[in-house]
Amino acid sequence: MFVVVLLIGLLLAWAYRVTRPLPPNICGSPCGPPITASRIKLRDGRHLAYKEHGVPAEVAKYKIIYVHGLFTCRHSAVIAKNLPQELVEELGLYIVSYDRPGYGESDPDPKQTVKSLALDVEELADQLGLGSKFYVIAYSIGCHVVWGCLRYIPYRLSGAALLAPIINYWWRGLPSNLSTEAYYKQLPQDQWTHRVSHYIPWLTYWWNTQKWFPALSAVPGNPNIFSRQDLEITSKKVGKQINKIYITKSINRDIFVGLSKKIL
Fold first, then answer.
1. Which end of the chain is more exposed for a tag (fewer CB within 10 A), N or C?
2. Which segments constitute the AB hydrolase-1 domain (predicted)?
3. Low-confidence ranges of the chain (pLDDT < 50)
4. How far, in Å, CA of 66 to CA of 139, rounded?
């Protein structure tokens, strides 16, 4: 009997360990990376790093908050980096990109939800003095932040856009026939990742770090998910700053939050 109890205890301990990521090393802490970015302090004491682009906010005609995707950070604001400066000035564009929780130099949020992400955006806008309304644009899995903004702070938005979104196929309001069609166009491993994250989200970290089955294709950078044009762009290896101490936990937190049932 003792042996059985011991084996069960060891099995539970192993299961707990493999389903929980290592604790992050906070930027600015005694053993953590240095702080180099501009940051704001949020309502719960966390810090959010950001980078401003374009014309000054006080003279801007359009104020835009850009939300990055996987493996990127505040430096990856494609809408700011790829527009000619003359056009930015002519249109009066102010763009602020920020490190989502756990990326770059922003503190991780162990209690992160789609609502908390939307409130982070709202607080960033308020502390930077962007006024009562602003635009939000997001890329890849960062699009669940915009979904949260549309749901929780719609009164603050002048407009919203999703660029190449990774979506939750169970989002309410999406036509079920289109969601189903798009879902089955994914690679089988991505279909399984969505199922795991949606139905048994506490296994998300284990699923994306185990070696028995193929996990989310975007995490290892599977070339099969890219078109020829995508491969030409990614082959240029655009530089980016990501805090690797946080990255595994942050990516899996993204998947857990963005694809689970909790945001429906």
1. N
2. 64-192
3. 2-6, 9-10, 12-16, 18-19, 237-247, 264
4. 8
